[in-house]
Amino acid sequence: MTGQSRTLLGVGCGMAAGALWGLVFLAPELAAEFTPLQLAAGRYLAYGAIAAALLAPRWRTVSAAVGRREWFALSWLSVLGNTLYYVLLASAVQMGGVAMTSVVIGFLPVAVTVIGSRDHGAVALRRLIPSLVMGAGGVACIAWQSMDAAAPSSETKAIIGLACAIGALGSWTAYAVWNGRWLARMQHVSAHDWSLLTGVATGAQAIVLAIPAALIGASAHASDEWIGFVAVSAGVAIFASIVGNALWNRASRLLPLTLVGQMILFETLFALLYGFLWEQRWPTAAELAAIVLMVASVVTCVSAHRQRQGASHAQDQYA
């Protein structure tokens, strides 16, 4: 396979993963009768069951490759990247809307870059200032939009929704950085198996989470609402957690890190598209400005990394 073919296939896998991950933002709207805790418990019970079923034929071989320390890390990764993240995400969507939540989460590539700037050989943080300024501008635009669109009685609700979205961003950023470092250590475990092991750990947590989910804020539901809840939970688990992660792992193997990280942008763009279709409207001026600033922030971040790579390559040639 040529380099160009690898790049095209990798970008295609990254786009497909983003299209499937974008469904996560719509799920709380499709099952709005249920609390964020119930949505998280349902999704991750399904994710854990499917991951365990896929690992079952190879369980002895795969489990032998991880010890107590790795299971401890997998448990924390499950909290940061799945359980806590999705509870905050679902809360943000239900309180602040799909558009606001997806735009805030869209700054994940920049957030990961800022933390990664402390790593050896990383781009200097001062070169990322333009990207960070535009990212902050995008957040300001969408925050203003969410406050302006909210009714006076729901302004507090919108503020809480924005806070939940920012919390979800922080949670998944920590997961992305920590998970990447563990994958670098665990070369003897494939990225797909590591993802399935994370699913097993998440499923175990979902069993515990199901108890408060059934008690806190729970209410009676009609049979058709339960059918919809099960369908949404299973659908998100299969398409976003299993298929989406598999596509993402494939993209990660085909593309360089500086490019694959920016593929997360497709998740945000598809989430916005689904949100506008669900609400049957065009984006507002503030939402358009936020999208433009978000894209410019990520593109500027990529440019800084490419300049750094180009300088390193030139130094290697003349060394």
In short:
The chain is mainly α.
Class from secondary-structure proportions: mainly alpha
Inertia-based shape: globular
Q: What number of structural domains do the residues give?
A: 1
Q: How many individual β-strands?
A: 0
- What share of the residues lie within helices? over 70%
Average pLDDT rating: 80
Largest sheet: none
Order of helices and strands: HHHHHHHHHHHHHH
Which regions contain 5 or more consecutive residues with pLDDT less than 50?
Answer: none
Radius of gyration: 20 Å
Q: How far apart lie the N and C ends? A: 31 Å
What does this structure look like?
The protein has one domain (7-311). It is built from 14 helices and no strands. The mean pLDDT is 80. The longest helix has 34 residues, at 285-318. The chain has 319 residues and is mainly α.
Compile the SSE list and pairings:
Layout: H1 3-21, H2 23-30, H3 36-55, H4 59-64, H5 68-96, H6 98-105, H7 108-116, H8 129-149, H9 155-185, H10 191-215, H11 223-254, H12 257-260, H13 265-279, H14 285-318
Helix pairs in contact: 1-11, 1-13, 2-5, 2-11, 2-13, 3-5, 3-10, 3-11, 5-6, 5-9, 5-10, 6-8, 6-9, 6-13, 7-9, 8-14, 10-11
Defining key terms:
mainly alpha, 319 residues
